[in-house]
Queue: 4 jobs
Job 1
Amino acid sequence: MRSTDVGDLTCPVARAIGDVGDPWTLMIVRELFLGSHRFDQFEAQVRASPVLITTRLRALEANGIIAKRSYNARPLRHEYHLTEKGLDLWPLMVALKHWGDRWGGFKGGPPAAMRHKACGHATALNLVCDCCGQPISARDVVIEPGRLMSDERDALMTQKRARDGAKVRLRRGPVAGRRPAKPARQP
């Protein structure tokens, strides 16, 4: 499977990765959440080539994650803002920040904090059950794929086994009961 096909799978994680899964796209989304809206800000903070940034901005716009708004007519200049779909990436960005704070190897603690505007206190990632309000982690939940996802996963496994079987037959040589191919003549 090519990386461009990931977004076609019947899996919400795969579809999200298809839209925002490369590092440069995530860095642009990070910048949008940090308040950057203009191309020169993305260039300075993301430290990628203008062509790469342009490509990622176009993809984010095509996927409905950002909206482009002009702020200057001559010369024409644009700002980029998160749409509702883009704002829904907030939990992903907070989860990446949480993971990076823990495993990023920052000496002296996390390089940035999140502060709750309403109460003024620092806050962090806390996942809780929607029903009972208890904290949850990966060990506390079970993912239950739906029928379409299960069917697709079964089909992908069947395809893999067929490919693996073909590779084994190629390595072992001809199948039993068949005559081997004639060797090439030597001049």
Job 2
Amino acid sequence: MKATVRAMCESDAAAFDYEYTLSGEVKSGETFNTLYARQRLKKANVYVAEFEGKLLGYVVVAYEYTLSGEVLVHIEDIYVLPLFRKCGVGKSLLDYAEREIMRRYDKAHASIAVGAAYGAAQRLFIRNGYMPDGMGARFNGRILQDGAQATNTRGLCLKFSKELKSLDNNKNYH
């Protein structure tokens, strides 16, 4: 299946909400309207995959600003509706996000939950050249020290990154 990937538009929020409900999955966190609002406020870019007018999945690219003023580009979420998994949709979304990131930045980051439900995402990022940062697991953004305990939720994750070739000599602006 050859999916088309594009920026999310306002009508996608309701369509995703409908498709997601039909899939029977329970998704915690942001609603699709919130994702679109974040894009409108330029806090993130949301890209959707579609085939013959049907939405298949999305990827969220967010920007984090460090105290030193550095911008960290973070692939915050990638999701494919269950019916369209293992059809190359996740790879299409990741490739598109990376091309957009490469326009201005040299590196992409991703935090991937360690739970079994996120195994496909872990494999997708590793197969596409993302490497763990070597700092170990994080829980709700904080690095876990040896012997620390954490609950296996979406907040328990490993951080990955990938060096990208910039397509623009005037990179690192947002």
Job 3
Amino acid sequence: MNKILSAAISTSLLFSAAGMAAVMSDSVMVGGAAMYPSKNIVENALNSKDHTTLVAAVKAAGLVDTLQGTGPFTVFAPTNAAFAKLPAGTVENLVKPENKAVLTNILTYHVVAGKYDMKQLEKKIKAGGGHAELKTVSGQPLWIMSNGPHNIQLKDAQGNIANISTYDVNQKNGVIDVIDTVLMPK
């Protein structure tokens, strides 16, 4: 009886561990939480402790439904630390209802229609001779460039440079790349 019980427990643990490994292999950890490819951009971002400012801004701009849509979208997602680099009071001012249009313009400047993983971004950079232009959902251009092997930077309309710290966080409706600077349109 003990051998049968022991075998059953061992088998159960083995299948549980294998199942957990399969689930975890498809997810990426961002902000202390697993980002699941079966969830959409908003569902995953809500769980990231590093993106609470971005989530609050998306809600204030009324973009939740859009980013939960079918997409696909590539989102360059600034961390809380990226927002903290802005001048004091900027975020608090942007989330006010009277500044919704400005906030929406800034946030949609972080979104590109289509799903561009790192390999696709690298191909665009190579084809462009070291840099490439992406058209954002806001309608304004954003530039990508290589900064060494496996390192892509973004340049915004004001000349600010953002580094991608986490690539290819796949979502049901696109992909997220985590960045260290808030991108600013014209």
Job 4
Amino acid sequence: MCSEPAFQSVSSSKRPARPHHDRWIVAIGIFKLLQAAAFLLLGFGALRLLHKDLLDVAVHWILALRFNPEGHFVSLVLGEVALVDPHRIKQISAAIFLIAALDALEGTGLVLEKAWAEFVTLILTASFLPLEMVAIFHRPTWIRVGLAVINIAVVLYLLRFVKMRMRERRLRHAGGEPELRGR
């Protein structure tokens, strides 16, 4: 007689258990996907300006926001807007869509918990920190400071997470155990 049950439970099968999900990696991925969506909207908004008179649009918003139309700030803004031509709008839109694509790539990879996404996000986020610091230095705003703090936290967390993950892989390979995660 066989003492083993005819059906094995899922927990007693030979397959490794589903690995633990890191909720912060997934949260960073969701943040990147939301950021990608925002950049997509911004890119389409910039493209909508392609065949419009930018000065008319700027004056409309200046009046709607109740700025002094004869003020120094308004004169500076209108002077800069007058320099933007359709070719420049296309360049700006292309850059915005590129950022959206990178954010979507990072976000998708992180939500799916792919190792390559951890490295890509770490490198890209860290590479933009100096530009964020320069922008804060020249013109500090709460939004810039808040986004910089979030990005610094992401970089620090990913540094710690990637080091931990690399240590785990080294131990797994040294011990001869098969890798549990499909990366």
